[in-house]
Amino acid sequence: MNLFKRIWTTRTVVGAAVALCLAGGCGAIYPPLGVVAKVELDRYAGTWYEIARYPNSFERGCVGVTADYTPRDDGRIDVVNTCFESSLDGPSRDIRGSARVVDETTNAKLKVSFFWPFEGDYWIIDLAEDYSHAVVGSPDRQFLWILSRTPAMDDGLYEQILDTLPERGFDPELLEIVPQFDSDD
Hints:
The protein has 185 residues and is an alpha+beta fold.
């Protein structure tokens, strides 16, 4: 192949790749995802109710979702996620895993594993001062959860959280509300 043809072919391939990326086909590039300044893991421990989430394959059909975190002596955290299949009166299922802190300065960046050796990013990007609600996401913006210590969240607070998501690179339109049991159930 002569030099002219080689350059033309290279330019065409690179141009096509750039066009594909601009059309959203190469994965988005996001600014670094900020996390909260500090998480006290003992205060974060306990039960969290999933208020809303980005759809994902491992929670498909899950409602009434809770996550229970228990610190261990070795520094890891036991994780038990429970959900009800299809409806709040459907059969329950749970999955057990563990988390490890990957940023000891903040304790806000964790890796969670339910099937060794696979781990997922669990970054705490918002946390109420009284630990009554949290927002957890992944730096690639593929996962997002809004969590509460109670099965319901005040509408005003939920809207405030939604308002902060775009500046962090998350699309609030992608969230799905997770049906939960009433506080009285």
